[in-house]
Request: fold
Amino acid sequence: MKKKLIAGNWKMNGSLAANDALVRALRDGIGQPGCDVAVAVPAPYLAQLQSLVADSPIALAAQDVSVHESGAYTGEVSASMLKDFAVRYTLVGHSERRQYHGETDATIAIKAQRALSVGITPIVCVGETLAERDAGQTEAVVKRQLAAVIHLNGHCISEIVVAYEPVWAIGTGRTASPEQAQQVHAVLRAQLAAATSHADRIPLLYGGSMNAANVAQLLAQPDIDGGLVGGASLKASDFLQIIAAAQ
Ligand code: 13P
Reply:
């Protein structure tokens, strides 16, 4: 059975002191996890995190990457800069980037491509808003979002990770039920299977109010291969319980 992946997304939270305390507590409690583990941290803390997670089972992830390789793009962080800090994964297309920064499917596809070109695995986020769900558009929305990254020049789709994060479940405490999540994951898996014979290898993560109480039921679903965890990744005891459930 393939290992599950549990990735924490710290979003715009943390400080040198808080990061230090959190990662030390994670390292103390993590043992030899039966799943892959990553933390997606704000860019200014990559150097700190690189040394904090060294020689541990915790991989480093970024929260975003530029569409550009280098040059006059003030404020941007390139894929090769991330690579300098041993970043293993980067989120692309998180709904907060789509919503607050106007990221489009086309932008997100370029970001995924940039990450892959330096050997960083993009975690491509998809998910519908509440209005889209209520209008019966969930499938169409996630399929459109996934279609944008399914044919990346020169790269096999099986090199990516996909995270299904229904926007209405993010930070709301309102998790998708395991059945609701599985239903969408099955749609995504079928779409991947039509594009590659390696669809089973692509981790499909669920994200949206995942916590220690609901993780086991979500991960018990056949097409849920891990989690992308926001709020609960900021507390070591919560994140460790989620990791422990993902064996
Ligand atoms: P919460 O776990 O806080 O709902 O956030 C989910 C998320 O957006 C992870 O990327």
Q: What stands out?
A: Residues 9, 94, 165, 170-171, 207-210, 228-232 surround 1,3-dihydroxyacetonephosphate (CB under 6 Å). The mean pLDDT is 96. The CA atoms of residues 82 and 187 lie 32 Å apart.
